[in-house]
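U., I forgot to send this yesterday:
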Amino acid sequence: MRLAQARTPGLNRVRGAGGRSDGAMEPRNFNRLLQRGWDRQKFVCVGLDSDADSLPVAHLASAGVGDRIFAFNRAIVDATADLVCAYKPNSAFYEAQGPAGIEALIRTIAHIHETAPEVPVILDAKRGDIDNTNRAYARFVFDICGADAVTVHPYLGREALSPFLEREDRGIIVLCHNSNPGAREFQDLPTQRDRPLYHVVAEHVATVWNAHGNCAVMVGGTYPDAVETVRRIIGDMAMLIAGIGAQGGDLGDAIRAGLNSRRDGVIVNSSRQVIFRSAGKDFAEAARREVVALDSRIRRIRDGP
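Result:
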């Protein structure tokens, strides 16, 4: 019952993404929100990988773990919302805390929608199963949590992912080439078409799967060659670039490889390097300084030769 009480007020407030001239609220749409951010030259996505064991607990006036996570996230969001194109909470860090963690996730997304309605939320859930199971996953991600987009696995194919893909207003970000060192174990395997598997995934997402224009891909910035190749395959579609910062991805190589023909199209995620920049009471201010620095670097790279 506690989850329902935390969820309902937030979701009732966030159905719109900004007022229209007639006073009505405009329905939320991931691609539209994302493009508005790009039009304002915002490309940074802050990953809210809010591991309870890494929080600056001494500086959070909250008792329970769920309240601490939410208080931490709220401070980070309030300090950075004017700078980012998206937020990306990783579901694992919330699920690990049980009901209190899931409640903190729902409250975090509701807070973002209420205080920064132009900023979409990507739930990094990496879901993927048979279609019936995915229908339940989609309800949790979109209807319970209120996320604007979700990361999904492609391994079971388009038919299995249809419960996600049919959500025309939500973003479906398909894992294409991950950032971890072992990503090449399967993703680089040659197919019968003599192309690496991740090439085929990118092609399917950009053509067959993108019937509603709501697909995007995730590529690790630790593999700029993969970023460049995937960009050629998908055209101007959105690309989430992960692995920048703590995982060692080179920002310049990733941005230059990932920009589309309009010089946008990238969602540059940084998680631990931003949110855990300081363990002191200035943790939110430190996060803002890191986002400002990252944003400045992206702009210089984007506007350079």
